[in-house]
Design brief:
heterodimer; A: 162 residues; alpha+beta; Alpha-Beta Plaits; 5-stranded antiparallel β-sheet; B: 543 residues; alpha/beta; Rossmann fold; 6-stranded parallel β-sheet; 22 helices; 18 strands
Chain lengths: 162, 543
């Protein structure tokens, strides 16, 4: 049965590590649903948040094979519902008088912000769970999306599991 | 002192006495510095064979093999050798020259991203960016290669770093402390107790040994353990020779080219202890089915191997040598004489009669005779193909060793690996067996053999075909042969003359005993050409 899992992977902050980790996924045909990387409070250590899906054996292998990589310090794995997860998305849309109101209402309802604007374009920013980010795209699908950028999922295990 | 001097000094500190390799501008500072030491350098004839020779050396000595080649094509030629070592978990430290640091990434002459290319088949790799890091990196590299699950480590050395001045040189004495690498050596006590309990209650226990037992040096411990508790043993290809093949508790190699009794034992047993074997496709074709309804105890130093191909009942992570020492400390009693008797009966009943190759040298018979006449502690290196499978099925191994490229199946492995083995232990008899395909992939190393006085006994089993693939095409494509016919045969007698090597030819089994005696006598190199039936198959054809 296919399941989703989040891997919070602490790695040495060295050049080439991202390619080693992503290369491992490619070489062993593991899925990467999303990937986000950033430094931690210790600048020698980066945190990679990887969302992957597969059957139980695959999900276990991902963790074991990641552990074999000598640049990987520690791996935490958790289910989505055990975590607080967020994505950041920027969407540039073309608007006109007739749909401006509707877009603004959608933004308000979705707790999204309009962060930049010109006479006919605007950039909307949303920071929310992956599901609500997907929903935002759906809601805006009626108007013309010019371009968009979206981070991978960032996630931390919920405090009650600490 | 410059970087290259420091590298050489590190090698001395690690007790390296032989480096295999090839020269080139980007690695020349290193080859220049090594002149100042007693380390023996061996110039092979193509880079791939530097890794294979280092592998033969490592497997003979039980320590890290070292090779060094230049940048670009030197490095890319080495890749097959590195991958071969990786899939058999052979500890190597491989140095590659690299273009000057500031030129990396600009596609200059003889530049190749070897680190990127080798990533998925090295245990770890380093690009040296600062000359001061050399002692730390080399110290770590030897530690990583030779601990946990062994494997090759690659060190890419830009030419300018090799030439840079290094201030004071100190070599670490303690094992490196790496926060990302802490291999499990000792087995978990609770798991060990669990295993003992399961073995105690087993009616039909079986031990399947793999290459991991050789690598951890647990051969003696394992033998003592199975003898004490009368546990039957089967082996994977990489585990051949852990128990002498004529040992009463040994029932042969498993797998699709294995012994019938061994596969029968795998099927029938109720408790299976897998030691240092990765349950790969050639050994166990449908793992989930094979292990259904059994207790599978999977012991491996690499936790990722446990559960990769099959979910074990009892996983046990650690070094086989340590764990078997622990096992020996546990007192328990198990009895399963009925099981052993049934296996012995099975062995007797299931002697498959192969029709003997007429008018040619019969491969199984020949290999039995050859290996039977070899010295007790000889090293037998089989290449890849029919010669390898005939060897695995028929070679008699006593106190000696059996090498082959099991995981990768790299043709041409046997000659360079045998030369490496001979250089590692000059007193030992080293016999390489290859087919005419593999021979032509690495026959150039006969020059290396002569140059460094490392005489090997080389059998070339000639059938004018890439035999194992021909056999495959025979069964699968109904004799529609494509790309398997070695249409031109070099004259081996003349070739032997060209390389100043003694030559013996066997067209059939006539006078074979004397010919093998002549072949094996003394320590001089000898090539024995053996003519096989081109249509011979490893699989027994159903009548």
């Amino acid at each position: 049965m296919n399941m989703k899992k989040i891997y919070s992977v602490l790695v040495e902050n060295r050049s080439g590590v991202l390619s080693k980790v992503s290369g491992l996924f490619a070489r062993r045909s593991f899925n990467i649903d999303s990937l986000a990387v950033g430094e931690t409070e210790n600048k020698d250590i980066s945190c990679m948040t990887i969302v992957s899906s597969g059957d139980e054996r695959t999900l276990e292998q991902i963790e074991k094979q990641l552990n074999k990589k000598l640049d990987v310090i520690k791996i935490k794995t958790f289910e989505e519902q055990m975590s607080v997860s967020r994505e950041l998305m920027l969407i540039k849309v073309k608007y006109n008088k007739s749909n401006r109101r509707e877009i603004m209402e959608t933004c308000e309802a979705m707790k999204a912000d309009i962060v930049d604007m010109s006479k006919s374009f605007m950039i909307i920013q949303i920071c929310d769970t992956p599901e609500r980010t997907d929903l935002m795209i759906k809601l805006l699908s009626g108007i013309s999306i010019v371009e968009m950028a979206r981070t991978g999922t960032l996630a931390l295990q919920k405090c009650i599991y600490q | 002192m410059i970087g290259a001097d420091a590298i050489v000094k590190c090698l001395e500190k690690e007790g390296v006495d032989t480096v295999f390799g090839y020269s080139g501008v980007a690695i020349d500072p290193f080859w220049n510095s090594i002149l100042e030491t007693d380390i023996k350098t061996v110039l092979v004839r193509t880079e791939q064979n530097a890794a294979h020779a280092a592998s033969g050396y490592a497997r003979t000595r039980g320590k890290v093999g070292v090779c060094a080649v230049t940048s670009g094509p030197g490095a890319t030629n080495l890749l097959t050798g590195i991958a071969t070592a990786y899939s058999d978990s052979i500890p190597l430290v491989c140095f590659t020259g690299q273009v000057d640091s500031e030129l990396i990434g600009s596609d200059v002459f003889q530049e190749a991203d070897v680190i990127g290319a080798a990533e998925s088949f090295v245990k770890y790799s380093y690009l040296v960016r600062n000359v001061k890091d050399i002692p730390r990196i080399i110290h770590e590299a030897f530690y990583i290669a030779s601990t946990g699950r062994r494997g090759p480590v690659l060190i890419d050395l830009p030419a300018d770093i090799q030439l840079s001045r290094i201030g004071d040189f100190t070599y670490p004495t303690e094992p490196p402390k790496l926060r990302t690498y802490k291999p499990t050596v000792k087995g978990n006590t609770l798991q060990i107790k669990k295993v003992i309990k399961v073995l105690e209650n087993a009616k039909k226990p079986l031990v399947c040994v793999g290459g991991g037992v050789h690598l951890s040096g647990a051969k003696n411990e394992l033998q003592k353990f199975v003898e004490k508790h009368r546990l039957p043993v089967v082996s994977t290809m990489m585990g051949l020779g852990i128990l002498p093949t004529e040992h009463p508790m040994y029932y042969g190699m498993v797998g699709n080219n294995g012994a019938v009794t061994a596969n029968h034992a795998m099927k029938e047993c109720d408790v299976l202890l897998m030691v240092g074997a990765r349950v790969a496709d050639r050994a166990v074709s449908a793992p989930d089915l094979t292990f259904e309804g059994k207790v599978l105890i999977h012991m491996d130093v690499d936790p990722a191997e446990i559960g990769k191909n099959v979910g074990p009942t009892i996983p046990i992570v650690g070094d086989a040598k340590h764990i078997f020492e622990e096992f020996m400390g546990q007192s328990f009693y198990c009895s399963h004489e009925e099981w052993i008797a049934s296996l012995n009966n099975y062995k007797m009943d299931l002697k498959i009669e192969r029709p003997e190759a007429k008018g040619f040298v019969d491969s199984p018979k020949f290999i039995k005779m050859l290996s039977g006449k070899m010295k007790d502690d000889a090293i037998y290196v089989a290449d890849v193909g029919q010669n390898q499978l005939f060897s695995c099925q028929n070679a008699i191994i006593r106190e000696g060793k059996f090498f082959t490229s099991g995981g990768m199946g790299t043709m041409g492995y046997s000659i360079p690996a045998a030369i490496g083995a001979k250089l590692a232990d000059p007193e030992r008899q080293v016999v390489a067996v290859c087919g005419d395909g593999a021979f032509q992939m690495s026959m150039m190393e006969l020059a290396t053999m002569n140059q460094y006085k490392s005489p090997i006994k080389l059998v070339v089993m000639r059938n004018h075909y890439l035999g194992l693939v021909r056999e495959h095409q025979h069964f699968v494509y109904h004799d529609d042969y494509s790309m398997v016919d070695l249409g031109f045969d070099p004259d081996l007698e003349m070739l032997s003359k060209a390389y100043h090597v003694k030559y013996i030819r066997c067209e059939n089994m006539e006078g074979m005993e004397e010919k093998i005696d002549d072949f094996l006598t003394g320590d001089e190199a000898c090539i024995m050409e053996v003519l096989n039936d081109p249509m011979e198959t490893v699989a027994v054809k159903k009548a």
